[in-house]
Automatic annotation (TrEMBL):
This is 3-sulfolactaldehyde dehydrogenase. It comes from Alkalicoccus halolimnae. Its EC number is 1.2.1.97. InterPro entries: Ald_DH/histidinol_DH, Ald_DH_C, Ald_DH_N, Aldehyde_DH_dom, ALDH-related_metabolic_enz. PANTHER family: ALDEHYDE DEHYDROGENASE.
Length: 483
């Protein structure tokens, strides 16, 4: 029986609108068309941004309590329809239904944290009398919203990564014009549905759908856009920096995450965590474990147990609660990963498990002896492939972990506090997870990387800082305080 195709609409400036042109959305598991979505033009997006800026200027002050209420009501709405949101995430994307349910729960939390942080946007007093001759001055600074935020999000977390941009932006009092990934637009439109029901002010949220190549320049270069918040690939990030001009940029550009396992680690815990970190969401996770460096004395035991646990993973139907690993986002991505693995094998790498493709599916794959010259080693694979390598010391492990152009997060498993702190202080990354794999994250923490992994930090409170500006106020008093 053929599934009914959904005819979706964009949420633009408070209205649900259709488009004269559309594009199709497919389930990557079956390649079945599941929705037809409006395809916006660059001119349309430019007009949306202009009107969003006008809406921002028309509201002299959006009170904090109203922002809090809108965010809380949106969270309540998503929580009420939790299963519908999870089904949509699993249907249009790569996640299993179990993983999708987890993402919905995190989204609710992200919006609730945004509501709480809205009440904490504060400034500080400034001691102007620290300068001689300024004894009669006093003042402070406060934070104010910057204006229109353009947000561009990827396919791998199609609801929560959208919430990580929309939630902080609205908490700070900014309008948002969002373009979700073309392969997973439905989850973002459903987030807009929650905010529409929650009473977001007209003009303060728009979700425009269409091609990134066609809409990207309009989004990032428009003079009314005061910040671009982007999550995606490094090449696209470079293009944005060239086009954006003088405005704030927040970018999370992916990674090639390392994990270090020392001989004094809890073997079973390290294996369990790194297998999960490598293959969750079919490896399509910017924090996913890609390279594991194991101290030589533990290498054989770790490798054997890691391969055994990987073999236990159930690959199959996304909507089944028994499935551990679903398909890639499309068959082209699976073919790319197949090519990269074959390149490594041809160069001398050995496959301990996996290495096989079936349509958009690629089996969880474990490799050893991968030459450092292979793309699989130094680029972001963004798929269910992990490399295991033996090292002789913590110093060698850290040096190897740093030997790529990315630096988002890393993990280390050890019971030696000196080893832990050596890693903390010498790994070139935005976060070090001790006795956890690289993919551990809570939505409140500062999140971002160094090198090619990005600019700035997300995590609700830290995103709000990026989406606000400081304004200093100084009062000159007629008589000094000392008189």
């Amino acid at each position: 029986m053929q599934t009914k195709v959904l005819s979706a609409k964009m949420y633009v400036l408070g209205d649900w609108v259709s488009g004269t042109k559309t594009f199709d959305v497919f389930d990557p598991q079956s390649n079945e068309m599941i929705a037809r979505v409006p395809k916006a033009s660059a001119e349309f997006v430019e007009n949306v941004i202009t009107q969003a800026a006008e809406a921002f200027r028309s509201i002299s002050s959006w009170p904090t309590h109203e922002r809090i209420n809108v965010l809380q009501r949106a969270a309540d709405y998503i929580e009420e329809y939790h299963e519908r949101y999870a089904y949509t995430i699993a249907r249009e994307g790569s996640k299993t239904i179990t993983e999708a349910r987890g993402e919905v729960s995190r989204t609710v939390q992200t919006l609730r944290i945004s509501a709480e942080e809205a009440r904490r946007i504060k400034g500080e007093t400034i001691n102007f009398d620290q300068r001689e001759g300024s004894e009669n001055r006093t003042g402070y600074y406060f934070r104010f919203p910057i204006g229109v935020v353009a947000a561009i999000t990827p396919f791998n977390d199609p609801l929560n990564l959208v919430a990580h941009k929309v939630g902080p932006a609205l908490a700070a009092g900014n309008p948002v014009v969002l373009k979700p990934a073309s392969v997973t637009p439905l989850s973002a439109l459903m987030l807009a549905e929650a905010f529409d029901q929650a009473g977001v002010p007209r003009g303060f949220l728009s979700v425009v759908t269409g091609s990134g190549r066609e809409l990207g320049d309009a989004l990032v270069s428009h003079p009314e856009v005061k910040m671009v918040s982007f999550t995606g690939g490094t090449n696209a990030g470079n293009r944005i920096t060239e086009k954006a001009g003088l405005k704030k940029l927040g970018m999370e550009l992916g990674s090639n995450s390392p994990v270090i396992v020392m001989k004094d680690a809890d073997l079973h815990d390290a294996v369990k965590s790194t297998v999960s970190g490598a293959f969750a969401a079919a490896g399509q996770n910017c924090l996913g474990v890609q390279r594991v460096f194991i101290e030589e004395a533990l290498f054989e035991d770790f490798t054997e147990l890691f391969a055994e646990r990987t073999k236990e993973l159930e690959v199959g139907d996304k909507q089944s609660e028994w499935t551990d690993v679903g398909p890639l986002i499309n068959e082209q991505e699976a073919e790319r990963i197949e090519e990269w693995v074959q390149e490594a094998v041809d160069a001398g790498a050995k496959v301990l498990h996996g290495g096989k493709r079936n349509g958009a599916y690629y089996d969880p794959t474990v490799l050893i002896d991968v030459p450092h010259s292979c793309r699989l080693y130094y680029e972001e694979v963004f798929g269910p492939v992990v490399m295991l390598e033996s090292v002789g010391s913590i110093q060698e492990a850290v040096q190897a972990a740093n030997d790529v152009d990315y630096g988002l997060q890393a993990g280390i498993f050890t019971s030696n506090i000196d080893h832990a702190f050596y890693a903390v202080h010498h790994l070139h990354v935005g976060g070090v997870m001790v006795n956890d794999s690289s993919d551990y994250r809570v939505d409140e923490m500062p999140f971002g990387g160094v090198k090619k992994s990005g600019i700035g930090r997300e995590g609700v409170a830290y995103a709000i800082e990026e989406m606000t500006e400081q304004r200093v106020v100084c009062f000159k008093i007629a008589q000094p305080w000392s008189q």
